[in-house]
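User: What would this chain look like folded?
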Amino acid sequence: MDKNLRAQVFETYNRYLNAFNEADMETINDCISYPLAYIGADSVKMLDKFPIDPRELKERIGWATSNAFEIDVVAVSDKKAHVVIRNVRRLKSDGSLIEEATAFYALKNTNSGWKMYAISDITFPA
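Assistant: Here's the prediction, encoded as structure tokens.
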């Protein structure tokens, strides 16, 4: 695996992650190539809008931050990459656990850099 490409993918994922934590939809959207394939529990949807609004997540479940990420750029070619995150802990402002999550991302190399085009996540309530 090309270490430079891996670093580029990792940088893109971290940019997305920081934007998600800051509820910065403009930067999140800049990390996505729409339509986005969202792989849910029982279906795949092609979306023209990001499926989660971090601001709404903060309001709905009291989410303040996330920690304990295990981020793995599993594979990278010059055109495509796979990223897996495991054991993410979503926390309230007092540090109490809301849920844990794991996710898979597929990215493609575009003229504008690496962009996500498929996401699948699973959450586990505390």
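The chain has a mean pLDDT of 95. If you want, I can go into more detail on any region.
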